[in-house]
Specification:
The chain has about 180 residues and is mainly beta. Helices cover about 10% and strands about 50% of the residues. The chain folds into two domains: about 1-35; about 40-184. Keywords: Signal.
């Protein structure tokens, strides 16, 4: 644009547009910010998992110890955004040796922004106050991004799914959780 075609009317229109835009940003500060997360809550959600045996150790007549990888997605059972549509990735050790039968592991949930929630789990830790969550408990150990400072407890159930068509010992399971959490 030539300087000779620049008019005071053009400058005035640009100035008005800038002022209106600035006023809108000042009045609605969260409109352009990342998704806001509440600071605490109780959230029921289910993770739809596919488990893959990674390595197995034969313990003779006593049983096996199997390293597992699990991947899946989450679904908030109330239709709320917390713990909904997150990718889940877990690693676990499944021990079935004599009287010892348990699965321990760790998980990472990631949302669409790449923010993560970390947890460990133990199938020997049963919350007796929630009889329907009778498979174990996750302990939320932390997070990144909007979940930084998150802690919590997640009793869970195990609901086996039909046998998968894939070879290699893969199996599917829905894992409902009843999570009480807080971001500090």
């Amino acid at each position: 644009m030539k300087l000779s075609t620049w008019t005071s009317g053009t400058a005035s229109a640009i100035a008005k547009t800038a002022l209106v835009s600035g006023a809108l940003l000042a009045l609605v500060p969260g409109a352009f910010a990342a998704e806001q997360v509440p600071k605490s809550g109780t959230t029921p959600y289910v993770t739809h998992f596919i488990f893959r045996p990674v390595m197995a150790m034969d313990l003779g007549d006593l049983g096996t110890a199997t390293a597992l990888e699990a991947v899946g997605t989450t679904q908030n059972l109330k239709g709320e955004p917390m713990f909904d549509k997150m990718s889940a990735h877990c690693t676990a050790l499944n021990v079935a040796s004599g009287p010892k039968k348990y699965i321990d592991g760790a998980c990472v949930l990631a949302d669409k922004d790449g923010d993560k929630i970390f947890s460990t789990f133990d199938t020997r830790d049963i919350d007796k106050a929630q009889a329907d969550m009778n498979c174990g408990t996750h302990i939320i150990t932390g997070g990144t991004g909007k979940y930084k400072g998150i802690t919590g407890k997640e009793p869970f159930a195990c609901q086996p799914m039909p046998t998968l068509a894939a070879a290699g010992g893969y199996f599917a399971m829905d894992i409902p959780h009843n999570t009480t959490w807080e971001i500090k």
